[in-house]
Each structure stands twice: as C-alpha cells, then as structure tokens.
Design a protein that fits this description.
heterodimer, A: two-stranded antiparallel ribbon, 2 strands, B: mainly alpha
Chain lengths: ~280, ~80
C-alpha cells in the first residue's frame, strides 16, 4: 500500500511528457513561416465549391436546388454538372464533400484526432496493464454455440470493417467507424472463449506502423507538393475504386490504427490483471 | 412521415435518458445509455449525416456500452475484495 503512489505518479508524469511533446509537434507545424508547414489557406481553393459541389452554380431559372429568394454563390462561371463515373480530374476526387474536407483539406485535424485517441489509449493501458492473474476454475465456460458463432461472426465483421474503410472515399464512413467495427468483432471473440488473448506484439506493431504510415504519407506531400498532408496522387474518375488520390491510403492507415487501438483497450480492460500500483 | 418517426425516436431518447439518470441499478443505467446512443444515431441518419450515424452506432451503442459493463464488473470485484 505504501508504495502505490510513486508508481502511478511516474506513469502520469510520463503520459504528460508525451502529451507536451505532441503539442509541440503540432505547434511546430502550424506556426512555421509561410511556405512551410501546413498551408491551410492556400489549400482551400476558391474554385473548390464550384468544381466539387453540384448546387453551387446551378442557375436561378431552374429553381430546383434553391429555395425561393436564395441566390447561387456565383453566376459568372458556367455550370458544368458532375457526372458519376465520367467526370475526371476534379480538384478532389472523393464522392462525398465531407470526406474530402475531413481527410484532404483538414487532414491535419484528422491527424490530431488520431493522436488524441492514441493518448487516451496509452493512458488506459498505463493504468491497467500488468501481470495476468491466474484463472479461477469456478468460472463458467461459454457454450459451444457461443464459441462457434462468435468465430463465424468475427470473419464477417472483420470483412465489413475492412470494406468500410477501404471504400471511405466512395461511401459514408471511413477510418474511425471501420476501426470501431473491427474492434467490436474482437470483443465478440473475447466473449466467446474464456482466456482468449490476442497477440500483443502484433497489435502494437500494427498500431505503430499505421501511425507512422500516416505521417509518412503527410511527409511525402510535404516534400513533393510543399504542404504537409497534400494530395500527391492523381484524382482519377469520380466513383472509381482507384480514385481520390491519397484519401484511400490515409483511411486505410486510420482504420488499422483505430481498430488495433480499440482492440487493445478491450483487451486490457477485460483480462484480469494484477495492477502494479494496487 | 419521417417527422412522426423522428418524434417517436426523440420520445424514446428522453425516456431512456431519464431511466439512465434515475435508475437504482447501474447496469440498467448503462443499457439505457446504449439505447440513447442508438436513438441519437437514428436521428443523425434522419438529418442526412450517415457517416456520423455509422460512427455513433459503432462507438456509442456498441463499444462504449461494452466497456462500461466491463468497468462496472471490475469495480464490483474491487468492492467485494475490500469487504473480505
């Protein structure tokens, strides 16, 4: 009992040092002189709304897209409709405006969100991680139906999660929901068999490699287009699987990271451990 | 038509949030919170934000409910250890 506070205190101190370092990283990128770092104003072009949003220049006379008395944003640019599977080389090829804003124009915010999740998960794991307790024998085993059913369901759930984040630039969804779906499938595996434990090193390697991949994709944009997290791939035809530049790559990285992180949270919370500080 | 469905969903959200606050059992509070998340995700879908709806259903109604139940189990285990 006497020795519990210093251990906990050390952990909290280490966590806050990591948080301060990450905040410094973000400040270093956003406060850089012009032409370096995150050039947010230059990235959001004025033509974005005209090129990517259908309702922007729809003329007044059709009146379908506007309520009475509402004027379109600009009338001097000719209206060119965007057709699915035909229009090519848009400024940003995502089928969803929300997706292109979240991942492309405000990709730095998404990096921040992923970092916040990473800090929360490391806090949980620092507090709860420890030696595995010995199993008591009086606990009841789940039935055979549960055991087989969760394993069959896990494959389908895993496939669905991968579908959600691979098609992030075509359908609503993306990295975060896909990762959460995969993590709930792993939760099902935990419920189906007592004493199940995933490969810890595999989870850690997955999580760190995908986080590193996110930053490396950003740095490639930094060195080739001169802005951190800028699109450096051709955008292709809207609606194709291979389109929208680097959005699909970033969503794959985010999905793998979120999935392995949430699975690690479920793992640390569900296994009986002997915490070091208690 | 959709306004009536949304009204029913909102009333269900209000009832289950009241259950979550005033219930004596913590487990039923957690289940009611999961129901609130499910209703909110339906409302997001009605408001034409399907990506937010998917996220809310996966994280709010699925994972966080399970994590709350696990945490409740751990907390109760600690209580019994102290009584012994």
């Amino acid at each position: 009992m006497k020795n519990e506070t210093p251990e906990l205190f050390k952990k909290i101190f280490a966590l806050s040092v990591i948080a301060v370092l990450i905040v410094g990283f973000f400040l270093a990128f956003t406060e850089m002189p012009k032409g370096w770092g995150v050039n947010v104003n230059g990235r959001v072009s004025r033509l974005y709304v005209l090129k990517n949003v259908r309702t922007a220049t729809k003329s007044l006379d059709s009146g379908k897209f506007f309520a009475k008395g509402v004027k379109p944003l600009r009338t001097d640019v000719a209206y060119t409709p965007i057709e699915f599977k035909k229009t090519a080389n848009l400024e940003d090829g995502a089928a969803n405006v929300v997706t292109s804003i979240v991942v492309d124009y405000r990709g730095f915010d998404t990096l921040g969100e992923v970092t916040v999740l990473f800090l929360a998960v490391s806090g949980v794991m620092m507090l709860l991680f420890g030696k595995r307790k010995k199993e008591r024998k009086k606990k009841t085993e789940p039935s055979l139906i549960m055991y087989v059913g969760t394993r069959i369901a896990f494959s389908v759930i895993l496939l669905f999660g991968i579908y959600i984040f691979v098609h992030g630039h075509l359908t609503p969804g993306g990295g975060f929901p896909g990762g959460a779906v995969i993590a709930s499938g792993i939760l099902g595996l935990f419920l189906g068999r007592r004493g199940y434990s995933p490969n810890h090193m595999g989870l850690k390697a997955f999580e760190s490699l995908s986080g590193i991949a996110f930053v490396i994709i950003g740095l490639i944009g930094f060195f080739s287009v001169h802005s951190f997290l800028a699109n450096f791939l051709p955008t292709g035809i809207i609606g194709d699987l291979y389109s929208a530049g680097f959005i699909a790559l970033i969503y794959i990285a985010v999905g793998m990271k979120v999935g392995s992180e949430l699975a690690a949270v479920v793992d640390t919370m569900i296994t009986d451990t002997e915490e070091e500080w208690s | 038509m959709i306004i009536y469905v949304a009204t029913v969903v909102v009333i269900a959200i209000i009832i289950s949030s009241l259950i979550a606050v005033f219930s004596k059992k913590l487990l039923s509070s957690i289940i009611a919170m999961g129901l609130v998340s499910l209703g909110v995700s339906g409302l997001f879908f009605f408001l034409q934000a399907p990506d937010v709806a998917i996220t809310e259903a996966a994280i709010g109604a699925g994972l966080s409910t399970a994590i709350f139940v696990i945490a409740l189990k751990r907390v109760k285990k600690g209580e019994t250890k102290d009584e012994e």
